[in-house]
Amino acid sequence: MFGRKRLKNERKIYTSGYHPENDKDKLLSFSVKEAYKTVRTNIVLSLVKDGCKIITFTSPIPSEGKSTTVSNIAVSLSKAFYKVLLIDCDLLKPRLHKTFKIKNHSGISNVLSKLSTFEESVQVLDEYSGLHILTAGIAVPNSSEMLGSDRMKKTLTELSEKYDYILLDTPPINVISDGLSLSKISDGVVVVVRQDHSTHDELKHAINSLKFISAKILGIVFNGAEAQSQKSRYGKSPKYRKYGRYSSYSYASTYGDKERKTGFEDDVIVVDNSIEESNK
Fold it and tell me: Least CB-packed of 22, 46, 166, 234 within 10 Å?
Protein backbone atom coordinates (compact mmCIF):
# COMPACT_ATOMS: atom_id res chain seq x y z
CA MET A 1 0.00 0.00 0.00
CA PHE A 2 1.14 3.56 -0.55
CA GLY A 3 3.03 5.27 2.22
CA ARG A 4 1.63 8.44 3.74
CA LYS A 5 2.89 11.83 2.59
CA ARG A 6 1.65 15.21 3.80
CA LEU A 7 1.33 18.17 1.48
CA LYS A 8 -0.34 21.53 1.89
CA ASN A 9 -3.56 21.81 -0.10
CA GLU A 10 -3.35 24.39 -2.88
CA ARG A 11 -5.96 23.88 -5.59
CA LYS A 12 -4.56 26.44 -8.01
CA ILE A 13 -1.59 24.24 -8.77
CA TYR A 14 -1.54 22.29 -12.01
CA THR A 15 1.06 19.60 -12.45
CA SER A 16 1.14 19.91 -16.24
CA GLY A 17 0.95 23.05 -18.32
CA TYR A 18 1.12 25.33 -15.26
CA HIS A 19 3.63 28.15 -14.92
CA PRO A 20 3.99 29.43 -11.34
CA GLU A 21 4.01 33.20 -10.97
CA ASN A 22 6.00 33.48 -7.76
CA ASP A 23 8.44 31.58 -5.56
CA LYS A 24 5.68 30.24 -3.29
CA ASP A 25 3.75 28.85 -6.27
CA LYS A 26 6.96 27.33 -7.64
CA LEU A 27 7.62 25.55 -4.33
CA LEU A 28 4.05 24.21 -4.13
CA SER A 29 4.12 23.18 -7.78
CA PHE A 30 7.32 21.25 -7.11
CA SER A 31 5.75 19.56 -4.08
CA VAL A 32 2.72 18.41 -6.07
CA LYS A 33 4.89 17.03 -8.87
CA GLU A 34 6.96 15.16 -6.30
CA ALA A 35 3.79 13.70 -4.80
CA TYR A 36 2.79 12.25 -8.15
CA LYS A 37 6.31 10.93 -8.62
CA THR A 38 5.98 9.19 -5.26
CA VAL A 39 2.72 7.56 -6.37
CA ARG A 40 4.43 6.55 -9.61
CA THR A 41 7.34 4.99 -7.74
CA ASN A 42 5.05 3.03 -5.42
CA ILE A 43 3.05 1.73 -8.37
CA VAL A 44 6.21 0.61 -10.15
CA LEU A 45 7.49 -1.14 -7.03
CA SER A 46 4.12 -2.71 -6.23
CA LEU A 47 3.93 -4.57 -9.53
CA VAL A 48 6.98 -6.69 -10.17
CA LYS A 49 5.60 -8.83 -13.00
CA ASP A 50 7.38 -8.90 -16.33
CA GLY A 51 5.84 -7.19 -19.32
CA CYS A 52 2.97 -4.73 -19.41
CA LYS A 53 1.09 -3.78 -16.25
CA ILE A 54 -2.62 -2.95 -16.51
CA ILE A 55 -3.85 -0.67 -13.71
CA THR A 56 -7.41 0.46 -13.04
CA PHE A 57 -8.06 3.84 -11.41
CA THR A 58 -11.43 4.24 -9.76
CA SER A 59 -13.22 6.07 -6.93
CA PRO A 60 -16.23 5.49 -4.67
CA ILE A 61 -18.33 8.37 -6.04
CA PRO A 62 -17.92 11.13 -8.68
CA SER A 63 -15.74 14.24 -8.34
CA GLU A 64 -12.97 12.62 -6.30
CA GLY A 65 -10.18 13.76 -8.67
CA LYS A 66 -9.74 10.33 -10.27
CA SER A 67 -9.24 11.57 -13.82
CA THR A 68 -6.83 14.22 -12.53
CA THR A 69 -4.80 11.59 -10.73
CA VAL A 70 -4.62 9.02 -13.51
CA SER A 71 -3.71 11.74 -16.04
CA ASN A 72 -0.81 12.96 -13.93
CA ILE A 73 0.42 9.45 -13.16
CA ALA A 74 0.36 8.70 -16.89
CA VAL A 75 2.42 11.83 -17.58
CA SER A 76 4.79 11.00 -14.73
CA LEU A 77 5.34 7.45 -15.99
CA SER A 78 6.00 8.69 -19.52
CA LYS A 79 8.58 11.15 -18.20
CA ALA A 80 10.31 8.19 -16.56
CA PHE A 81 10.73 6.73 -20.07
CA TYR A 82 7.95 4.19 -19.83
CA LYS A 83 5.64 3.70 -22.78
CA VAL A 84 2.16 4.38 -21.45
CA LEU A 85 -1.34 3.97 -22.85
CA LEU A 86 -4.10 5.88 -21.05
CA ILE A 87 -7.65 4.69 -21.84
CA ASP A 88 -10.85 6.54 -20.93
CA CYS A 89 -13.18 3.73 -19.88
CA ASP A 90 -15.91 6.01 -18.57
CA LEU A 91 -18.10 5.69 -21.64
CA LEU A 92 -21.05 7.60 -20.20
CA LYS A 93 -19.12 10.54 -18.81
CA PRO A 94 -15.75 10.69 -20.59
CA ARG A 95 -13.25 13.19 -19.27
CA LEU A 96 -9.76 12.61 -20.63
CA HIS A 97 -10.30 14.33 -23.99
CA LYS A 98 -11.21 17.50 -22.07
CA THR A 99 -8.28 17.11 -19.72
CA PHE A 100 -5.75 16.92 -22.55
CA LYS A 101 -7.78 19.09 -24.97
CA ILE A 102 -7.93 16.49 -27.72
CA LYS A 103 -10.74 15.16 -29.92
CA ASN A 104 -13.08 12.34 -28.93
CA HIS A 105 -14.33 11.31 -32.37
CA SER A 106 -13.01 7.78 -32.07
CA GLY A 107 -11.96 5.82 -29.00
CA ILE A 108 -12.21 2.54 -27.12
CA SER A 109 -15.93 2.13 -27.88
CA ASN A 110 -15.19 2.46 -31.60
CA VAL A 111 -12.42 -0.12 -31.36
CA LEU A 112 -14.57 -2.61 -29.44
CA SER A 113 -17.46 -2.07 -31.87
CA LYS A 114 -15.09 -2.61 -34.82
CA LEU A 115 -16.01 0.79 -36.22
CA SER A 116 -12.35 1.74 -36.32
CA THR A 117 -8.98 0.22 -35.54
CA PHE A 118 -6.78 1.02 -32.58
CA GLU A 119 -4.24 2.65 -34.87
CA GLU A 120 -6.95 4.93 -36.24
CA SER A 121 -8.20 5.89 -32.78
CA VAL A 122 -5.13 6.26 -30.56
CA GLN A 123 -3.73 9.77 -30.12
CA VAL A 124 -0.09 10.66 -29.54
CA LEU A 125 0.77 13.84 -27.64
CA ASP A 126 3.88 15.64 -28.84
CA GLU A 127 4.45 17.31 -25.48
CA TYR A 128 4.46 13.99 -23.60
CA SER A 129 6.83 11.58 -25.25
CA GLY A 130 5.83 7.98 -24.63
CA LEU A 131 2.21 8.75 -23.67
CA HIS A 132 -0.61 7.59 -25.95
CA ILE A 133 -4.29 8.27 -25.22
CA LEU A 134 -7.35 6.31 -26.28
CA THR A 135 -10.45 8.37 -25.54
CA ALA A 136 -13.89 6.94 -24.79
CA GLY A 137 -15.24 7.37 -28.31
CA ILE A 138 -18.89 7.29 -29.30
CA ALA A 139 -21.61 7.00 -26.65
CA VAL A 140 -23.00 3.50 -26.18
CA PRO A 141 -26.01 2.17 -24.22
CA ASN A 142 -24.26 -1.00 -23.04
CA SER A 143 -20.99 0.19 -21.52
CA SER A 144 -20.85 -2.51 -18.83
CA GLU A 145 -21.31 -5.33 -21.32
CA MET A 146 -18.80 -3.79 -23.72
CA LEU A 147 -16.04 -3.22 -21.17
CA GLY A 148 -16.60 -6.60 -19.54
CA SER A 149 -16.58 -8.49 -22.83
CA ASP A 150 -14.07 -11.03 -24.08
CA ARG A 151 -13.21 -8.59 -26.86
CA MET A 152 -12.07 -6.06 -24.27
CA LYS A 153 -9.87 -8.68 -22.64
CA LYS A 154 -8.43 -9.63 -26.01
CA THR A 155 -7.83 -5.99 -26.91
CA LEU A 156 -5.95 -5.34 -23.67
CA THR A 157 -3.91 -8.50 -24.16
CA GLU A 158 -2.91 -7.38 -27.66
CA LEU A 159 -2.07 -3.86 -26.53
CA SER A 160 0.05 -5.24 -23.70
CA GLU A 161 2.61 -6.22 -26.31
CA LYS A 162 3.13 -2.53 -27.19
CA TYR A 163 3.22 -0.76 -23.82
CA ASP A 164 4.89 -0.90 -20.42
CA TYR A 165 1.78 0.38 -18.63
CA ILE A 166 -1.89 0.59 -19.55
CA LEU A 167 -3.89 2.88 -17.23
CA LEU A 168 -7.69 2.65 -17.21
CA ASP A 169 -9.80 5.60 -16.07
CA THR A 170 -13.08 4.03 -14.94
CA PRO A 171 -16.40 5.29 -13.47
CA PRO A 172 -17.03 5.37 -9.71
CA ILE A 173 -17.55 1.79 -8.57
CA ASN A 174 -20.30 2.66 -6.09
CA VAL A 175 -22.33 4.01 -9.01
CA ILE A 176 -21.75 1.69 -11.96
CA SER A 177 -20.05 -1.70 -12.24
CA ASP A 178 -17.75 -0.94 -15.20
CA GLY A 179 -14.80 -0.36 -12.91
CA LEU A 180 -15.32 -3.68 -11.16
CA SER A 181 -15.34 -5.68 -14.38
CA LEU A 182 -12.10 -4.02 -15.47
CA SER A 183 -10.54 -4.44 -12.03
CA LYS A 184 -10.90 -8.20 -12.38
CA ILE A 185 -8.68 -8.27 -15.47
CA SER A 186 -6.19 -5.66 -14.21
CA ASP A 187 -2.91 -6.25 -12.42
CA GLY A 188 -3.85 -3.73 -9.75
CA VAL A 189 -6.33 -1.07 -8.67
CA VAL A 190 -5.76 2.44 -7.33
CA VAL A 191 -8.65 4.03 -5.43
CA VAL A 192 -8.89 7.84 -5.38
CA VAL A 193 -10.80 9.68 -2.65
CA ARG A 194 -11.12 13.40 -1.94
CA GLN A 195 -11.08 14.97 1.50
CA ASP A 196 -14.42 16.48 2.55
CA HIS A 197 -16.22 14.56 -0.20
CA SER A 198 -16.60 10.81 0.27
CA THR A 199 -17.80 9.40 3.55
CA HIS A 200 -16.01 6.60 5.35
CA ASP A 201 -18.91 4.25 4.59
CA GLU A 202 -18.71 5.02 0.88
CA LEU A 203 -14.99 4.29 0.81
CA LYS A 204 -15.47 1.11 2.84
CA HIS A 205 -18.18 -0.05 0.43
CA ALA A 206 -15.87 0.52 -2.54
CA ILE A 207 -13.01 -1.38 -0.89
CA ASN A 208 -15.28 -4.28 0.02
CA SER A 209 -16.59 -4.47 -3.55
CA LEU A 210 -13.04 -4.75 -4.86
CA LYS A 211 -12.11 -7.36 -2.25
CA PHE A 212 -15.20 -9.39 -3.13
CA ILE A 213 -13.93 -9.89 -6.70
CA SER A 214 -10.38 -10.51 -5.42
CA ALA A 215 -8.99 -7.38 -7.06
CA LYS A 216 -5.46 -6.42 -6.07
CA ILE A 217 -5.72 -3.00 -4.38
CA LEU A 218 -2.39 -1.21 -4.78
CA GLY A 219 -3.34 1.69 -2.56
CA ILE A 220 -5.51 4.72 -1.92
CA VAL A 221 -4.73 8.22 -3.12
CA PHE A 222 -6.10 10.76 -0.64
CA ASN A 223 -6.69 13.77 -2.84
CA GLY A 224 -6.88 17.46 -1.94
CA ALA A 225 -5.95 16.95 1.71
CA GLU A 226 -4.79 19.69 4.02
CA ALA A 227 -1.42 19.38 5.69
CA GLN A 228 -1.57 17.63 9.07
CA SER A 229 -5.35 17.54 8.84
CA GLN A 230 -7.01 16.21 11.97
CA LYS A 231 -10.55 16.38 10.62
CA SER A 232 -12.75 13.47 11.60
CA ARG A 233 -15.19 13.90 8.69
CA TYR A 234 -15.05 13.74 4.97
CA GLY A 235 -17.80 16.36 5.04
CA LYS A 236 -20.61 16.96 2.62
CA SER A 237 -20.97 14.74 -0.37
CA PRO A 238 -23.39 14.96 -3.31
CA LYS A 239 -25.80 12.11 -3.78
CA TYR A 240 -26.11 10.42 -7.09
CA ARG A 241 -29.30 10.26 -9.07
CA LYS A 242 -30.33 7.37 -11.28
CA TYR A 243 -27.64 6.42 -13.75
CA GLY A 244 -29.58 6.23 -17.00
CA ARG A 245 -28.41 4.34 -20.03
CA TYR A 246 -27.55 7.49 -21.95
CA SER A 247 -27.32 9.95 -19.08
CA SER A 248 -24.19 11.53 -17.70
CA TYR A 249 -23.44 11.97 -14.01
CA SER A 250 -26.26 13.92 -12.40
CA TYR A 251 -25.96 15.44 -8.96
CA ALA A 252 -28.67 16.03 -6.38
CA SER A 253 -28.39 18.55 -3.56
CA THR A 254 -25.84 17.79 -0.87
CA TYR A 255 -26.75 16.10 2.36
CA GLY A 256 -25.44 16.59 5.87
CA ASP A 257 -22.11 15.63 7.31
CA LYS A 258 -21.50 11.98 8.08
CA GLU A 259 -19.24 10.64 10.79
CA ARG A 260 -16.13 8.86 9.64
CA LYS A 261 -13.12 7.20 11.17
CA THR A 262 -9.59 7.65 9.88
CA GLY A 263 -8.77 3.99 9.59
CA PHE A 264 -7.31 4.33 6.08
CA GLU A 265 -4.88 7.07 7.05
CA ASP A 266 -1.75 4.92 7.02
CA ASP A 267 -2.42 3.55 3.53
CA VAL A 268 -2.71 6.75 1.54
CA ILE A 269 -0.53 9.30 -0.12
CA VAL A 270 -1.84 12.84 -0.09
CA VAL A 271 -1.70 14.58 -3.45
CA ASP A 272 -3.43 17.58 -4.96
CA ASN A 273 -5.47 18.75 -7.92
CA SER A 274 -3.85 19.53 -11.24
CA ILE A 275 -4.86 19.17 -14.86
CA GLU A 276 -8.55 18.78 -14.18
CA GLU A 277 -8.75 22.02 -12.23
CA SER A 278 -7.31 23.97 -15.16
CA ASN A 279 -10.23 22.99 -17.35
CA LYS A 280 -12.95 24.25 -15.01
Answer: 22
Residue 179 pLDDT > 70, yes or no? yes
Q: What pLDDT shows up at residue 225?
A: 67
Q: Which of 149, 171, 173, 158 is nearest to 92 (CA)?
A: 171
Predicted pLDDT of residue 125:
85
- Residue 193 φ/ψ, nearest 5 degrees: -130, 150
**Cα distance between residue 121 and residue 13, in whole Å:** 31
Helices vs strands, H then E, count in the chain: 10, 10
Q: Could you give the CA distance from residue 164 to residue 77 in angstroms, rounded to a whole number?
A: 9
First CA to last CA distance, the chain: 31
Lowest mean pLDDT among 34-43, 57-66, 160-169, 179-188: 34-43
Rounded Cα gap, residues 225 and 166, in angstroms:
27
* Alpha carbon 280 to its chain's center: 17
* Cβ partners under 8 Å of residue 2, min gap 6: 38, 39, 42, 218, 219, 220, 221, 267, 268, 269
Helix (H, G, I), strand (E, B) or coil at 189: strand
DSSP state of 274: -
pLDDT band for position 269 (50/70/90)?
very low
Beta carbons of 107 and 155 less than 8 angstroms apart: no
Q: Rounded to whole angstroms, how far apart are CA atoms 258 and 261? A: 10
Residue pair 223/192 in contact by the 8 Å Cβ criterion: yes
